[in-house]
Design a protein that fits this description.
2 domains, ten-stranded mixed β-sheet, alpha/beta, 20% strand, N-(1-d-carboxylethyl)-l-norvaline Dehydrogenase, domain 2, Rossmann fold, 10 strands, 312 residues
């Protein structure tokens, strides 16, 4: 089977990068993983592992590399690195690019698309939104609680053949994928879940999403934050329906004791993506005239809590 993007490099081989990279590789693409801390363990085992929907899938052999120079130019770069480490991307990506290489970023929050477009050209950039619940559980090993879906959009304009072809390739690899008509609108839709649940699990003392949903006060706060995201998005010309808000809350309890990526980082003492997920949305919403007092308070609280966690 031919693929529109036969050679793919994964930059950021954590939970998201591993999940999508393994899926694409098992679907027949030549996927090359940029690994650092996990490299020795993955090479010793000779494989990457994915646990999803009750099955254990193994990618063997695996193409794992220590540097982008070893990987060389590819057709698509999948960027799954944390936005807190985004400053290293201008140094990492050039060896992976030729004149036609596309860059797909599945980074959280707002600002990553613009950051990459300013440095590598907007025409290269596709944005990906991962509606998924998964965690990295060991070197080169990821557990998926809920496979969800992936949304892909073009940064520079409406979707064309490139975005549709990439979506088809993900779909053929077992990833439920759709193409967004407007990438900015899609990003705000994802924030409906990320802002309350990534934030409240930290602010409430390091609890999983099931406990947020089960606590009446926290559940109401989550819904109120969703409504503020809805208001901010509307002020920027991206309407979000009440039904979408309801669905985003109702899909959460079945995930069980899920720890969102921000909580995982917080509990591990790593830097949390505060500005991308809470800061930049707050600033854009407020600049557009939306009242976001709960988001403002949560942003300030998380900055204080997360700073203490990293400093300690």
């Amino acid at each position: 089977m031919s693929h529109p993007f036969p050679k793919i490099a994964v930059v950021g081989s954590g939970a998201l990068g591993l999940y999508y990279g393994i899926r694409l590789a098992l679907g027949g693409a030549q996927v090359r993983f940029l690994l650092r801390g996990d490299l020795a363990a993955v090479r010793a085992r000779g494989s990457l592992l994915l646990h999803v929907e009750g099955a254990r899938q193994e990618l063997r052999p695996v193409q794992a590399f220590a540097s982008p120079e070893e990987i060389g130019p590819v057709d698509l770069v999948l960027v799954a690195i944390k936005t807190t480490a985004g400053a290293i991307l201008p140094g990492l990506l050039p060896p992976l690019l030729d004149t036609r290489t596309a860059i797909l970023t599945v980074q959280n929050g707002l600002g990553a698309d613009e950051f990459l477009a300013e440095r590598f050209g907007g025409e290269r950039i596709l944005g990906g939104l991962a509606f998924i619940a998964n965690n990295r559980i060991g070197p080169g090993e990821v557990f998926c609680y809920h496979p969800g879906s992936l949304t892909i959009g073009e940064f520079a304009g409406p979707p064309g053949e490139r975005a549709r072809s990439l979506a088809d390739q993900f779909q053929a690899a077992g990833v439920k994928t759709r193409v967004a008509g407007n990438l900015a609108s899609a990003r705000w839709h994802k924030l409906v879940w990320n802002i309350p649940f990534n934030g409240l699990t930290i602010a409430a003392g390091g609890i999983a999403t099931d406990r947020v949903c089960a606590d009446p006060l926290l559940a109401e706060e989550a819904r109120a934050l969703m409504r503020e995201v809805q208001a901010g998005a509307a002020a920027l010309g991206h309407p979000i329906t009440d039904e979408f808000l309801r669905q985003q809350f109702e899909v959460t309890p079945p995930m069980g004791a899920y720890q969102p990526s921000s909580l995982v980082d917080f509990l591990a003492g790593r830097e949390v993506e505060i500005e991308a997920i809470w800061g930049e949305p707050r600033r854009r919403a407020a600049a557009a005239g939306a009242a976001v007092p709960r988001l403002t308070l949560l942003h300030a609280l998380l900055r204080r809590i997360a700073h203490k966690s990293v400093s300690s």
